[in-house]
Design goal:
The structure holds two protein chains of two kinds. By secondary structure, chain A is α/β, with parallel strands linked by helices. Chain A is built from nine helices and 13 strands. The two termini of chain A are 42 Å apart. By secondary structure, chain B is mainly α. Chain B has helices at 3-16, 20-37, 45-77, 80-84, 91-120, 127-154, 157-174, 186-191, 196-208, 215-238. The longest helix of chain B has 33 residues, at 45-77. Classes of the chains: A alpha/beta, B mainly alpha. Chain A: InterPro entries: AAA+_ATPase (IPR003593), ABC_transporter-like_ATP-bd (IPR003439), ABC_transporter-like_CS (IPR017871), ABC_transporter_ATP-binding (IPR050763), P-loop_NTPase (IPR027417).
Chain lengths: 295, 245
Amino acid sequence: MILARAEQVSRRYGEVLALDRVDLTVRSGELVGLLGPNGAGKSTLINLLVGLRRPTAGRVELCGGDPRDPASRRQLGVTPQETGLPGTLRVGEVVDFVSAHFPDPVPRGELLDRFGLADQVRRQTGGLSGGQRRRLAVALAFVGRPRLVVLDEPTTGLDVEARHALWDAIRGFHADGGTVLLSSHYLEEVEALAQRVVVIGHGRVLADDSVAAIRGIVGVRRVSLVADDLPALPGVVATERADGRVHLLTTDADQLVRDLVTSGVPFRDLEVRPTSLEEAFLAITADDRPAPTPA
Amino acid sequence: MPLALVHARYQLMEIVRVPVAVFGSAFFPAASMLFFVVPFADDDPTGATYATAAMVTFAVMTANIFQYGVGVAEDRDQPWNPYTRTLPAGPAPRLAGRILAGLVLTYVSMIPVVVIAAVATEARVSAVQFLLGLGAVAVASVPFTLLGLAIGYSLPSKAAIVVAQVVFFPLAFGGGLLSGPDDAPGFIKAIAPYLPTRGAVELIWAAVTDWQPDPRALVMLVVWVVALAAVAGWAYRRDEGRRFS
């Protein structure tokens, strides 16, 4: 069963095309990661799927209906941005407020326990630490016993321990049959949670594949050096020349360096850097740049 | 509890925890009462009652224009607002809750005016007139609620504050709230019937005295309500939270 779907969806903000003919399908029981750099269009896509905005073109569907129809959102759980919690309300009050919208909400104590907030029930949300606010925000997505939970950057700004605690909660929900759509700009987070990754860049779906396949693409490293002539080297995904340096993008930097040395070509100023997601995808998929030279 | 009441309750809880917000909408009418009504009311019960009713209208107008105009615009700036729009409820409970909370605050903001009138002037109403007056206040708040919603849903909060201030002053003076029913300056007499403030105050006068309301002002009040409802509805539908360009 399909819980969320975008079909050839575009969304324009004035001059900016935030989404460009995007297709996405989330089926029941999946845990899908939406990966991409900031500004790629992840949040826009999520806003369309949860009914906050209307697409400029194309169609979005949530639980078989229009996401802007409240009935379609009955089995949806969404996380508010942590900065958006009403600061004067107490933790328990915020949970009660959200619970009032659902027919069979998770009891308040049980929910707060699950997210380690049981002791904060009387605190005003404005007085919580950043980590507690984030946990409360994520907890709110689970109040209504949703089938689909949509988490937009759920752990941004959290320390490692808090992040792992949240991951456990998300995994637990998925293990019980829940469906999750999660956006992140951390590959690590998506790797830890998702089975399927959809990579978004410049408003388009660049890849939609298993975690392993995506890791192969975004695990690209940049080996840069100064050299006159290079022989063809195995494992090079793309070659660029800029400012007198040669940049080789590869999925296996160690092997590339070994090959370089054994080839005997003179070179100097060797650098190996990880590429950012953005770089990796731009290098591989951008069509508005000089086509990368295949190795 | 119906969702509209849940929303009203939380609106009020948020407001009450920052009490200065309530103080703001009660202050202007109470201060105007002390400066413009109490010193001039002498011992004329009729004049004092008219003037008090005008200040009540003033309170109704201020409370509603600012609460909705500025309150809605500020809420739209907060990320909490888009979140509540992902909950499985349409706009109706949220709007109804907001209006209920607004009505409660409107009544609260006119308490100082009524207390000052009872203590410091000769203004007097019967119990029946008092109850009629409470009903008239609810009706009179409709155009200002709609005006506030129109401002709040169509403008960013910084602009909404300015527009609310710019709008409320001419409405108060032009509608003749700061002069008695018959002794307003000529140009105010000429324009007042066409402003929503006049229709509103005439309603309240009619409720608490034996004033015969001017039909022109009442017809114009209905026209204003229809027009403002159209603008507020349009602004609400085109709103998608914060605006980006």
